[in-house]
Design a protein that fits this description.
Length: 173
Amino acid sequence: MAARPPLDALDLAILNALRERPHTGALELSRILGVARATVSARIERLESDGIVTGYGPDIDVAAAGFGIQAFVTLEIAQGAIDAVQRDLEAIPGVIEAHTITGSGDVLCRIAASSHDGLQQALVDLNRSKVVVRSTSVIALTEVVRWRTMPLLASAADPSAGRSSMSRRAPSS
């Protein structure tokens, strides 16, 4: 797969405007950004065809929707059983995302539930999978950094903007 050129300032401005106003059309975006509507439309089409823009929401806060108990579960699975565990995880409504990982486990899942009993049931359901050898769970207490993409995209467009304030601190003596 060929490397895609980095996003430029207009791409970032369009993405940021869409994050802030997801229902805004190309004409209004062109007014906000001060560029031609055809330019905005072409850029959005390219961002979609490149797979960068994958949808237009809505973003859903599961805690606000009544599922305020969340946990991260690391699964160790039987060798070569990723397809089977994927089917099993997709059958459990509380599994809101899952990723294959490196390290001591094989799959990291994020689970949401409306109560501790609901969380316990989701964990029981996970462990009923014939391919799950072991699971380890931790309950999330608070969200420190909300899911975000714009700082990462901006750092690729301007590497000096991507350095954190921690990396710019003077060394202590």
